[in-house]
Design brief:
The protein is an alpha/beta fold. The chain is built from twelve helices and nine strands. This is Probable ribosomal RNA small subunit methyltransferase A.
């Protein structure tokens, strides 16, 4: 039913979807129901949706929430969405035209989105700057697997560390390509992301993490030495950098980057920052 309705709407408005813009619309009723069910929306919730499209998620969310703030960038799609909302007499949706990566978000307490895959990373990190209860988000499967990866596994990355320290992240279920129109070339997954209160993550930590994961299979001490430019632009000589790193807990600098727990990287970052601020 959803597949037929989507095709008819797009045909009626002479709209051809663009994969490059991440316009892969959900056409599977069962998957849609599971997303809405996991969002557990109440009539006091204000829901943020990014990439609203023709309202596949917007409409069922609006029927449960106090309000939905729906971001959409494509003017043709916005016209279609507004027309649908008017026909269905749904008046609690604020449609916002523009690039969600560049705009401030109004108040919301939950996020439910089938994210355009090309903005997955910037939107995820942007969301973490806001205070909200939790998010139910659709990602490319590979990206989702990196989000929840554990130390020592092949998918473990800088993203995994950031998600572990800043959120509780759970992969709820996988979604096959044929659940979308047009079908993407890859599978997808739905993630539940719950922000942690007062995460101990700051800019210096982010730089340290980036430096380490440029050499994820090397020992962390060597990785820091080789990518120290990511952490500091000061003109320290290599022997000075080596001297600073040698004072960090040896158990951690001898450990390979992809085996470090997020908390261990936090210790490395804090020790490194102290040593650089107090070199003596």
């Amino acid at each position: 039913m959803l597949a037929q309705e989507t095709s008819q709407l797009l045909k009626k408005h002479q709209i051809r979807l663009n994969r490059r813009k991440g316009q892969n619309y959900l056409i599977n009723n069962h998957i849609l129901s599971r997303i809405v069910e996991n969002a557990n929306i109440s009539d006091s919730d204000v829901v943020l949706e990014i990439g609203a499209g023709i309202g596949t998620l917007t409409i069922p969310l609006a029927r449960k929430a106090a309000k939905v703030v729906a971001f959409e960038q494509d003017k043709r799609i916005i016209h279609l969405l507004q027309e649908r909302l008017q026909e269905l007499e749904i008046y609690n949706v604020e449609v916002v035209e523009g690039d969600a990566t560049k705009m401030e978000f109004p108040y919301f307490n939950k996020v439910v989105s089938n994210l355009p895959y090309q903005i997955s990373s910037p939107i995820t990190f942007k969301l973490l700057k806001y205070d909200f209860d939790y998010a139910i988000l659709m990602y490319q499967l590979e990206f989702a697997q990196r989000m929840v990866a554990q130390p020592g596994t092949s998918n473990y990355s800088r993203l995994s560390v950031m998600m572990h320290l800043c959120t509780h992240t759970e992969l709820l279920f996988k979604v096959p390509p044929n659940a979308f129109l047009p079908p993407p070339r890859i599978s997808s997954a739905v993630i539940k992301l719950t922000p942690r209160k007062n995460p101990q993550v700051e800019e210096f930590f982010i730089k340290t993490c980036r430096a380490l994961f440029q050499h994820k299979k090397k020992k962390s001490g060597k990785a820091l030495l080789q990518s120290f430019h990511e952490i500091s632009s000061s003109n320290l000589e290599k022997r000075e950098i080596r001297d600073i790193i040698s004072k960090i807990d040896n158990k951690l600098t001898e450990k390979r980057v992809f085996k470090l727990e997020g908390e261990e990287i936090l210790i490395i970052s804090n020790e490194l920052k102290d040593l650089m601020n107090n070199p003596s």
